[in-house]
Amino acid sequence: xxxxFIKAAAAxxxxxxxxxxxxxxxxxxxxxxxxxxxxxxxxxxxxxxxGYTCGxxxxxxxxxxKAKEQLVVIAEKTKEAxxxxxxxxxxxxxxxLYNAAAVIKGGEVLAFIPKRFIPAYSEFYETRHFTPGNxxxxxxxxxxxxxxxxxxxxxxxxxxxxxxxxxEICEDIWVPNSPAVRHAMAGASVIINLSASNAxxxxxxYRNGLVTSSSARLIAAYIYASAGEGESTQDVxxxxxxxxxxxxxxxxxxxxxxxxxxxxxxxxxxxxxxxxRMNTFMSEDTHTYTVLPxxxxxxxxxxxxxxxxxxxxxxDKEAREKRCEDILSIQSxxxxxxxxxxxxxxxxxxxxxxxxxxLALLVTVxxxxxxxxxxxxxxxxxxxCFGTTDRTYDNAxxxxxxxxxxLKEVDIKEAVTVHFKEIGQDVDNHDVTYENxxxxxxxxxxxxxxxxxxGLVIGTGDMSELALGWATYNGDHMSMYGVNAGVxxxxxxHLVQFYADTCNDNAxxxxxxxxxxxxxxxxxxxxxxxxxxxxxxxxxxxxELHDFFLxxxxxxxxxxxxxxxxxxxxxxxxxxxxxxxxxxxxFYRRFFAQQFKRSCLPDGPKVGSVSLSPxxxxxxxxxxxxxxxxxxxxxx
Length: 636
Hints:
Structural class: alpha/beta
Shape: elongated
Largest sheet: 7 strands, mixed
Mean pLDDT: 96
Low-confidence stretches: none
CATH superfamily of the largest domain: HUPs
Strand order of the largest sheet: 13-12-11-10-9-8-15
Radius of gyration: 31 Å
Number of helices: 19
Distance between the termini: 18 Å
Strand content: 15-25%
C-alpha cells in the first residue's frame, strides 16, 4: 500500500448451478489464493453463490435461504483475510428479490449493493425474477445485524488516502447513466463490477472497450469479474472474461475460458493526481450516499506491475511509428503556421551533426515542402569551433547537402578568441565561460544571418535539455521557434530513426544512421586525438533515466521516493540502485535550479502529455526550493 499501490484480484470460481454450499467452498478457495498473493480487493462474479443461470429456481425459498447461509459461511471462513471482498447472490428484501453484491470484511457483511438496471432483452430475462435496486441505502437486517442496502454506498479505507470503492453489477455498465458515474463523482476511485456476461462472437472486444473507456472517463480503476465455467450452457456460454483497468489503461485481462484469477497493482495516488489536475472533473452532492469505513493492514505491496524504461516511447513498433509520424506532423504544422503568420520565406538553422539539430532540420524541410517553398531557402549553418570533430562536421555538411538545403560555414574560432581576449578569458581555461562563449557566439551568428535574409532562426534544443537546464542562457537556449521543445531526448532518437527508415533515400539514410551512432555531445571542449572528449551523459547522466524521472515526476505527480522505487524496477539489471539514486538527486537539483531558463522560453509546439512551456503546462516559479523533494531521497 506504500506509495498508493494496492493489489486487486478478479477471481472466477468453477461453480455448480444451484449448489450454494459447493460454490461457497470454491469461492473461499479463490479468496484464500488471492490473499496469498497479497490482494486487498477481491471481486467475484455476479450471483456466483448460486450461479447466474438458475432461472426460475431463484424463486425457490430453499435456494435463497441456502445462499444467505453460505454467505455467512464465506464471511466466517475469510475472517482473517486482510481484504475487502465482493461476492454476488440473490437476496430478498420486503418480498422483492434483488441481484446483489455482498461486501465482506473481517468476517462480517458490511453492505448489500443491488443491481440498478435489470435487463429483459435478447437472452436476458432478469426482470422475471429481480427488482431494480434502490439508490438511497436503507437498513436491512441480516444475520442478526442491520447493514445498509442500496446502490449509493461507498467504502472508504481509513488507512489509505484516496481508496474509495463503489460497486455496480453487470448491466449497470452498459447503460448511458451508469451508477459508476455517480459513484466516481461522489468520490469513488475504484469501481467494482460483478458480472455474468455471456460469450458471443466479438462481444469480448466490446466489453474491453466498455471497461477501459469507463475507467478513462471516470479517472478511476475498474475491476470487472465475469462468470465463467460451471454456469448452465442450456442456451448461452460464459467465458470468465475478467479485466482490471486504470484510467484508460488495461492492466490485466483474463484469457477467456481459462477460469484464471487476474491481478493488478492499482495506483490510487496516480488517480488522485489526475483528478486534481483535471479541474473539469467535478464532484457532486453526496448527501444520498452512505460511506462505510474499512481498515487494511499497512504494508508494502509487492509490485508485479511493469514500468517501461521509455514512457515517452511506445514499445510496440506500429504504435511507435504512428507516434513518430504524429509528432513530425505536429512540429511541421506548428512551424508552418509561424511562417504563414510572419510571411517569412527563409529559415536559418545551426547544424552540428548531432541528433537535435538533425531533427530540427528534418522538420524544417518537411515544413517547407508543405508550404511549397524551395528547400534552398533553408540556410543550414555549420559553425565549427574548438570542440568540433571531423565526424560531426562531415555529417552536418552531408545532411544539409543531401536534403537540398543551402549550406553556409561560419568558422567562429577567431571571433570567440577575440571575444575571450576582450573579456580577459584565458583560452586555455576550459571553464563554463569557455564553453558558453562558443554557444552564445553561434546564436549571435544565427540571429544576424536571419536578419540578413529575413528568415527565422529555428531552435534545436529538446525537452530533456530544458528539464536539466542543459542549454546556454541566451545561447542555444534562444530561437524564433523551438520545434523540439516538446520532444524528450529518448524520443528524438526514434524520430530520426523513423525518418531514416521511411525516407527512401539511401544517401540520406546513411547520414542519419551515422548521426544516430554518434555520442551525444555539445562539442565545446577540444577533442582528444580527433575523437569527441565531452559526452553529455557522462556529465548530467543517462537521458533514458532523466526522461523516466521527468515523466513520472511531472506527468504523474509521483513523489521522489515513488519515482525511485519504480525506476529501480524498470531499470533492474541495467543500473544499480545507487546509480539511479545519484542521477535522481541530480535531476531534482537541476530541474529546480534551472527553471529560470524555462520561464523565458521561445514558442514551440507541445507534442505530448508533458510540456515545459511557461505559457502552457508548467507554471512554476523560478525560485522554488527543491529541499522537500531532495529530503525525501535522504532515507534511501
